[in-house]
Structures are given as C-alpha cells and as structure tokens.
Design goal:
This protein is of the alpha/beta class. Helices cover 33% and strands 24% of the residues. It binds flavin-adenine dinucleotide.
Length: 425
C-alpha cells in the first residue's frame, strides 16, 4: 500500500513497540522490510525516489546473492521479471584476449536491470505488509536511547516536514547515507578516488551468458547482459580513477566507453546503441565506524562500502538484511513498555560485528585486487596468469561470487545451495 502524501502526517499513535522505520527502498531496505514484516513487525519504508527508478550499478547479482534470493522465496519473482543467468566473467586488459572465469557449475549469477530488480523487491515487500512511501526524503535522524524512541524528520514532496517516531530506524539509504551522518555515526569523508557512469545499451553479438570486465590504465569497463536472456539489453559501466578522469567522464564518458569497448574487441555485430542513462556514482570508499547507534541501525551500502569492481554490493545488501532480521527476531519477542533495556541496546549493537564477520573476507579480497590492479606491471602479470591457468581465473571469480569458503577457513555465505531443479539451471 502506498500512502497518499496528504495522509502522511506526524506519528499517528501507532504502537511504537512494533514500529520500524526503514529509510531507503533499494535491495537492502526492501529485503530488510520484507523480512521484518514477515516476522510480524509493523514496517514503514520511505524513499526519496519513486519506483521504478534506475541506479548506477553493473547490474549483476553474484551467486551468493542469487542463493539469498532463493532463501527469501524471491528468486522466481526476480526471474519472471526478466533476468539473464550468468556463468561467469571474462577478464582482460585493454587489449588482448580475455581470461575466462567460471562460477561453480551449480551456481549462476544474474544480470538484471536495477529499475526492474529494485521495483520487484519493493512490490514483494508491499505484499508482505510493508507500508511504502515514495518521493519523501529523510533529512534528520535522532537515534533515541533506552527511553526515547528513534525519530526521523521527513521532507514531503511539497516541502512540508513531519517527524516520525519508531522503535528502530534502519538506515538503508545507500552510499551517502543521511541516516548514518545525521545520527552521528562517524563517516570520514575521503577524497574522491573513483567515479562511474552506467548506461543501458542495446546490441547483438557477444555471448549472453557472461559478463566482460576490461581492466585498463586508470579505468575499468564492465559490460553485462541484462533483462530476458533472449533480449538484446546490456549494462555498460565505465569506472575511472583520479580527478582529471572524473571531469572527462562527465564531458565525454560515452565516447570513452565506446573507444574502450572497441580496443578490447568486444564482438558486437554493429556498434551498440545507447538507450538509457547514464546513471552516475562516486566516490565509493565509504567506511563507517559502527553499524549501530542507539536505536539506529545500518544495512547495505549505508553500513560501509568499498568498491564496485567485484560486484558484491547487492549480495552484501541482502546479507545485511538477513542478519538484521535474525537479530531483531519475531515481534512477539518484544517486551511491553516503551523503554529498551541496556541489554536490548547491546544486542542491537551486535549487528555491526556480525555483519563485519560476514563480509570481512570479501572486503580483504577486494582490497588485494585493488592493489594488484593499480599498477600496470602487476595488473598485466595477474591477467597473464589468469589466462594461462584457467582454474585460477575461475577460483577468483568464485571467490567474488560469495559462495565458497574463503581462505582462513571463513565461509563467505551461509546460504544454501541453489535448488538444482531451479529453472535457471
Ligand atoms: C558503478 C557501480 C557498479 C556496481 N556494480 C555492482 C554489481 O554489478 N553487482 C553488485 O552486486 N553490486 C554492484 N554495485 C553496488 C550496488 O549497486 C550497491 O551495493 C547496492 O545498490 C546497495 O544497495 P542498498 O539498498 O544498500 O543501496 P541503494 O541501492 O543505493 O538504495 C538506497 C536507496 O535509498 C534512497 N535514499 C537515499 N537517501 C535517502 C534519504 N535521505 N531519504 C529517503 N531515501 C533515501 C535512495 O533513493 C535509494 O533508493 C555497483 C555500484 C556502483 C556504484
């Protein structure tokens, strides 16, 4: 149910014990809301956008993310909405033939348009009973304490502002999280290192079961099939590093993308057409010191983000939703009375360490890849080894797929294996 804006007043006296306000309707916010609503919580989700909306992204869900969708009972819906199964990624430098990395035989990633994916998840959340309010922006947050509820000041479409109270506020508002900064969770601002533009393009030629990553000097290009497998839609994303390249990106991004695709010899039958976008983003490195403060808790990119290169962001958004829903448990566990005990608050504080444990190995891997790719010699040597030893290329792609045990015996995903009878297999 989407509440008309004129019905969106100050707190209506709803039972604060049961009420959770989720800020942001991307994958983290939609799935957190859905899982909490299934647990009996009274969930309101607000987003400043109206859906469906596009989003800067490479638009590929890795196998760990696919497995989580299956676990949440959402995979069929997402496939029906139009998604292309992916068997892995081809990795190349600017020139030269690519190294081919494959996910495990029983695993698939998915290429799906974010406007479709996010809208599908949000519709599922509505059906689970979440009240969704679109086109409204959270401008301020009070994190509350044991006795005081969390508060959010929300700007409505015509500029009026209202204050809403809730037992918890969940910040699922992405990279530049207002909830994190407004609730006093320290987010040191890093100088912009990278920026990106993503386009929707249409074309025929390259195989539609794989993505392609071109790792060039100061840039990365990702090209991946999205939408129905039989279609002709692709995501093309150009990520650049450095201030000069950022400026050039906004002035001549599309030209640069075409040049990069050409020099990497992506086998288009005719040059692909640009049909939507671009969607821009940067800078990406947004660490947080903590994922909770009193009654405010963060999920998805808001809880910390490093780099889009390995395509693990959506997996982490879904994983953080799952971890938070597990931590809060069914609404029936809530004690009567308005106060939260110090023990309750300490329990909520476990969200950050739990999330950190779940994503730590993946983040280390990303940082290692980042260092290797930042120097021309090590980048070329790494790509040459991946080409020469296909099992190493596949090993790397599997690691970024969040479906295999990481080194040090850590398991990146506790999600079950995708059911073998599933149609995408
Ligand atoms: C260039 C690029 C390529 C990427 N490629 C991939 C990839 O291929 N695979 C992958 O898994 N990940 C990829 N990622 C990462 C992925 O996009 C994110 O990790 C993912 O979107 C995180 O989901 P989220 O729900 O946390 O945030 P988001 O999807 O950003 O959603 C946040 C929502 O919050 C809303 N919002 C923000 N502020 C407010 C406010 N103040 N009030 C109300 N609403 C608000 C926004 O409108 C938005 O809808 C990529 C990222 C980039 C930048």
């Amino acid at each position: 149910m989407t509440v008309p804006l004129d019905a969106f007043g100050s707190d209506s006296g709803a039972d604060l014990q049961r009420r959770i306000l989720v800020v942001g309707g991307g994958p983290a916010g939609a799935t957190t809301s859905l899982l909490l609503a299934r647990n009996g919580w009274d969930v309101t989700l607000v987003d400043r956008s109206t859906f469906p909306r596009g989003k800067a992204c490479g638009e590929c869900l890795n196998p760990g993310g696919v497995a989580l969708l299956a676990e949440f009972g959402l995979l069929d819906r997402v496939l029906e909405a139009g998604a292309t199964p992916l068997t892995g990624w081809d990795l190349s430098t600017q020139k030269g033939s690519p190294a081919q990395g494959y996910f495990a035989p029983e695993d698939r990633g998915l290429g799906i348009e974010r406007r479709t994916f996010d809208h599908t998840l949000l519709e599922a959340a509505k059906e689970a009973g979440v009240e969704v309010r679109e086109g409204v922006q959270v401008v301020k947050v009070g994190s509350g304490d044991g006795r005081t509820p969390a508060r959010a000041r929300i700007r409505l479409r015509r500029g009026a502002e209202v204050v809403e109270e809730a037992r918890f506020v969940v910040g699922a508002d992405g990279l530049g999280s207002r909830v994190a900064s407004a609730s006093g969770i320290h987010r040191p601002v890093r100088p912009p290192r990278r920026a990106s533009l993503s386009w929707r393009i249409q074309g025929w030629g390259p195989p539609r079961d794989r993505g392609r990553l071109i790792l060039g000097e100061g840039y990365t290009v990702g090209v991946a099939p999205v939408g129905p497998p039989s279609g002709s839609l692709w995501n093309a994303t150009l990520v650049v590093a450095g201030e000069a390249a950022r400026k050039e990106l906004s002035a001549r991004g599309w030209d640069r993308l075409q040049e990069r695709m050409e020099s990497a010899r992506i086998p288009w039958n005719t040059p692909p057409e640009k049909i939507d976008g671009p969607w821009g983003s940067g800078s990406f490195h947004r660490p947080v010191s903590s994922a909770t403060r009193n009654r405010v808790v963060l999920v998805g990119d808001a809880a910390g983000y490093f780099d889009p290169l390995t395509g693990q962001g959506i997996y982490r958004a879904l994983k953080s939703a799952q971890l938070l829903a597990e931590l809060l448990g069914p609404k029936s566990h809530v004690h009567p009375g308005r106060a939260l005990s110090p023990v309750d608050l300490a329990l909520l504080g476990l969200h950050g360490p739990r999330l950190d444990r779940a994503v730590r190995s993946g983040r280390r891997l990303q940082k290692t890849i980042d260092v290797v790719l930042s120097r021309r010699l090590s980048r070329r040597a790494a790509l040459a080894s991946l080409r020469a030893i296909p099992s190493v290329a596949s090993g790397l792609i599997r690691l970024t797929g969040d479906r295999v045990p990481f080194p040090e015996g850590r398991v990146a995903s506790t999600a079950p294996t995708l059911p073998l009878e599933h149609p995408i297999l």
